[in-house]
Amino acid sequence: MRLDVVTIFPEYLEPLNVSLVGKARARGQLDVHVHDLRTWTHDRHHTVDDTPYGGGPGMVMKTEPWGEALDTVLADGYEAGHGRPALIVPTPSGRPFTQDLAVRLSEQPWLIFTPARYEGIDRRVVDEYATRMPVHEVSIGDYVLAGGEAAVLVVTEAVARLLPGVLGNAESHRDDSFAPAMAGLLEGPVYTKPPLWRGRDIPDVLLSGHHGKIARWRRDETLRRTTAHRPDLIERCAPDAFDKKDREM
Ligand code: SAM
């Protein structure tokens, strides 16, 4: 998968060199290109923003640098034969970023991110590129960040761990919170050695070796935790997502 990020803070994307994403890059599973938006400015001050039409506080990112940047990135990716890109626009006014979208994005060959600063990017930029490729305006939560770079890191990590061969054990995201095998519900608590720590032991069933009982315990914990923290996820489930024992909970 190819990833392009256009930003005025390329150094903010340094974490893409470490941990899971960094390893995926080193193995050639991810081809990441971070670009400085100011490369496509032509004045002495490398200006990327201007005052908003209609007045009001804050500044708006200008169309011209974004247009030149995206045209260059697109030409480069097409020349390298990367297939059809999708444009990912981080914005608090976007659709919530979910595991479902992470799965869909992980199936794409090429993602281009446009993290903004100030009050965001002149709307015409998104409208222009939406005529050429799918655009996903995504919010990583109901709060406002100073810029979209942290959102790019969030989306990239969620997507990268789903790529074939990126996680050591391909099964390990099967039982994650929100996964289809979990009916979109939350994962319960997990434990490891030692069996006793500061007077706290672990549930006996996990030492029983009885796979059926362990699976039932995990399912009960999933239901308990989801009911406590995210009852909306339970409400969204199809009725046939629950068996008789679930209903007895
Ligand atoms: N005026 C904008 C609004 O209220 O919708 C907020 C602009 S914010 C200060 C600057 C940039 O940070 C946004 O354009 C976006 O790229 C990024 N950003 C802020 N909060 C975000 C969120 N919750 N999810 C994704 N991106 C976000």
From TrEMBL:
GO terms for biological process: tRNA N1-guanine methylation. GO terms for cellular component: cytosol. GO terms for molecular function: tRNA (guanine(37)-N1)-methyltransferase activity. It catalyses: guanosine(37) in tRNA + S-adenosyl-L-methionine = N(1)-methylguanosine(37) in tRNA + S-adenosyl-L-homocysteine + H(+). Gene3D superfamilies: 3.40.1280.10, tRNA(m1g37)methyltransferase, domain 2 (1.10.1270.20). Keywords: Cytoplasm, Methyltransferase, S-adenosyl-L-methionine, Transferase, tRNA processing. Transmembrane segments: none annotated. S-adenosyl-L-methionine binds at I140, G141, D142, Y143, V144, L145. SUPFAM superfamilies: alpha/beta knot. Residues 1-235 form the tRNA methyltransferase TRMD/TRM10-type domain. Its main location: cytoplasm. It is found in: Cytoplasm. The keyword Transferase applies. Its EC number is 2.1.1.228. Specifically methylates guanosine-37 in various tRNAs. Homodimer. Belongs to the RNA methyltransferase TrmD family. This is tRNA (guanine-N(1)-)-methyltransferase. It comes from Streptomyces tagetis.
